[in-house]
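Chain A, query sequence.
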Amino acid sequence: MDKKDRYDGAIALIKSQTNYTEEEAIEKLEKWEGNYMNVIKEYLNPNFNIKREKKDNRSINQKMMGEIRGFMDTATMNFEKRKAEEEKKQEYLKRVYAEFLEVKKSYPTCKYDPPRILSCDYNCPNPLCPGELLPNKKYSKMITNEPVNTVINL
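Chain A, predicted structure.
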């Protein structure tokens, strides 16, 4: 189907949906750059393309209270979200601590018992025990012997 057939089809459609003559249909179709839907919309409502501006009839006090309400709603939603995240975090920590206590039963020599005792032996056999708490606030099992990349300025 070529452009001429489509154009003629659009004119036929416009004529069937409106009571425009062929000349009026061609003129309106050219005005709307081939968009036959806009031609029909204009026929049904000549002002369809005009966007109406919404007028706010609220008083200054109503506007102010609306802003405060919106701000408080946002603050409340953020608080509830943070609270739910904190509860999930606490549940996770309880689950991890319970798992640690279960594993610790297998290793009676392990002294690590947070939050009361934060240090254990350097070579504690418990795989979940972090080891001895060193003066630099790191645990002995968490220190890696990877070489530190140093920059040498020449």
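The helical segments are 3-17, 22-31, 36-44, 60-104. Residues 60-104 form the longest helix (45 residues).
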